[in-house]
Amino acid sequence: MGAELLDGKKLAAEMRAEIRRKVAELKASKQIEPGLGVLLVGENPASVSYVTAKEKACAEAGILSKEIRLPATATQDEIVAVVRQFNADPQIHGILVQLPLPKGIDENAVIETISPEKDVDGFTPVNIGRMMIGLPSFLPCTPHGIIRMLLKAGVETAGKHAVVIGRSNIVGKPVAHLLSRKALGGNATVTICHTRTCDLASYTRNADILVVAAGHANTVTGDMVKPGAVVIDVGVNRVPDATFPRGYRLCGDVDFESVSRVASLLTPVPGGVGPLTITMLLFNTLEAASRAAGDSAAV
Ligand code: NAD
Hints:
It contains 10 helices and 11 strands. It is globular. The two termini are about 35 Å apart. The protein has 2 domains: about 30-115, 3-Layer(aba) Sandwich (Rossmann fold), CATH 3.40.50; about 140-275, NAD(P)-binding Rossmann-like Domain (Rossmann fold). The model has no long low-confidence stretch (mean pLDDT about 95). Helix 2 (about 45-60) crosses helix 10, helix 6 crosses helix 7 and helix 6 packs across helix 10. It is α/β, with parallel strands linked by helices. The strands form 3 sheets. A 6-stranded parallel beta sheet has the order 1-11-8-7-5-6. The chain has a 3-stranded parallel beta sheet with strand order 3-2-4, with helices on both faces. Bound molecules: nicotinamide-adenine-dinucleotide.
C-alpha cells in the first residue's frame, strides 16, 4: 500500500486565488488595502527565509507588507516599541513577529503587546482564550491550515482517535484543541504526546490521525503507524546534504519512506503543511482588514 500525498501547494494556490479576489473586492468597495506589519529580529536563516516567503505571498495576494528589521542585539524595549508602532499604524491590520526571538528576550511579553485585533498569528492570550471557549478569534495559522487540509481531503475527524506529538503553543496545543472541539474538522478524541511520554509508539499505533510536530527528523517511522492512518507531518528540519545546491535538504519529522508504505494519506515536506501556514496568515490579515472595515471576509 502506498500513501496518497496531501498536496498543500495545490490547496494553498486555490485558497490564495480566492483571497486575492477578496482583497481586490475590499480595495474596490471600501478603499482599504490590507496591511501586514512584519518584525524580524536578527538573521536566523530559517526566519529570514520564512519572512521572505510570507512577504512574497502578501505581494501576490495584493496585501501590503511593511517590514522592520532589528539586529539580534535589539533590546526588549526596542522590540516592544516596534510592535506598539504597528499597533498604532492605521495602514497595518495584522502584525507578524517572526519567532523565535533572540535569547534573553521575553517572547511572551512581546506577544502580549500585540493588539488582539491585529494578532493574525493567533498567539495572544486573548485570541487563544477566545478560541478555547469557542468565541470568534484568529486561529493560529499552522493548526488552522492542518484542519483545512483534512477537511479538503474529506478526512472524517469526528469519533476518530487523533494523536498529536508536540505540545508547543504554536502547533501542538492549538491543533489538539481544534481537533477535539465541537466543530467541523473537530470532534475527535485527542491524545497529546510529548518528550515525557513513555512508549510513544503505543500511542501512535492507535492513531487514526497522527499529527507530528516534534521538531526532529525520523521521530515517527513506519512501524509506529497504524495501517491506513492519516499522517500530517508538520516538522521542517534542515539535513546537511552536499548534493543540494544550498548544502542541505528539508525533511519533516516522519521517515517519509517507511511511513508512506503504511499510511493512507501523508503530507510531504516541503509542499505539505508549510504552504497552508502562509495561506492562513493571508486569510487572517484579510479578515483583520475586513473587520476594521466593519465586514467579515471568511474565505
Ligand atoms: P517545539 O520545539 O516548540 O515543540 C516540539 C514539541 O515536540 C515539544 O512539545 C516536545 O515535547 C515534543 N517532542 C519533541 N521530541 C519528541 C519526541 N521524541 N517524542 C515526543 N514528543 C516530542 O516546536 P514547534 O514550534 O511546535 O514546531 C514543531 C516542528 O514543526 C518544527 O520542526 C518546526 O520547524 C515545524 N513547524 C512547521 C510549520 C510549518 O508551517 N510547516 C510551522 C510551525 C512549526
